[in-house]
Design goal:
There is one protein chain. By secondary structure, the protein is of the alpha/beta class. The chain folds into 2 domains: about 1-90, Orthogonal Bundle (Methyltransferase, Methionine Synthase (B12-binding Domains), Chain A, domain 1), CATH 1.10.1240.10; about 95-220, Cobalamin-binding domain (Rossmann fold), CATH 3.40.50. About 60% of the residues lie in helices and about 10% in strands. The longest helix has 20 residues, at about 40-60. The protein starts with a helix and ends in a 10-residue tail after the last helix. Mean pLDDT is about 85; it is low at about 225-229.
Length: about 230
Amino acid sequence: MVVAIKQFDEDKKLLVDYVEQLDEEKVIELANKLLGDGIDPLYLLELLNEGMNRVGRLYESKDYYIADLIMAGLIFKQVLDLDKVSAHFNGRHNHKIGKVLLGTVKGDIHDLGKDILRGMLEANGFDVFDLGVDVPIENFVKKVQEYKPDIVGLSGVLTSTVDSMKETINALKEGGIPERTKFIVGGSHLTEDTCKYIGADGFANDTSTGVKICREWMKRDDGRGVNDD
């Protein structure tokens, strides 16, 4: 029993390492093994996200290139599509805990972080509408009015997107959104100060933090909340 637990812990560490190394075959193989050993699919995604964060740091230090980021994202999506993962989340979340509208703001065509956040949110029981990349302000305004999300998520990798995020949120607030609607902005360059400048309710430098913030907001929202038990 002790040996099995030790091997399980080693496999979890290896999975993170394999994601960092962009070893697609080993990630899929080990993910399937861990699922067979009974790992919670949500915890599996958290391990993958830890590996993704390492990839992101390697990219920031210029040890990895944009193609490596794209590869990491493709590996993540493949794990999301594994039968045991998709079946778990589809069966678990027949009742959605909240609605999120996502989009990469005008002037930025990066979608990797946004796409992974979307997958993580869906795995956590959120209904997500994705506007895509380089989204004009008027598209955000139109879709928010149609979709009526609980949370609006704005993504931007480039530092120049800070003003675009601010302008988008200002336009949405002027458009008369419900008071309960929350705004979260995402990007590795964001800080508490830029979040305040933008006018968002929260910010995240990685997808795990973004999911936790969204879950916490829904827990506080008049009984529609999230049960973490």
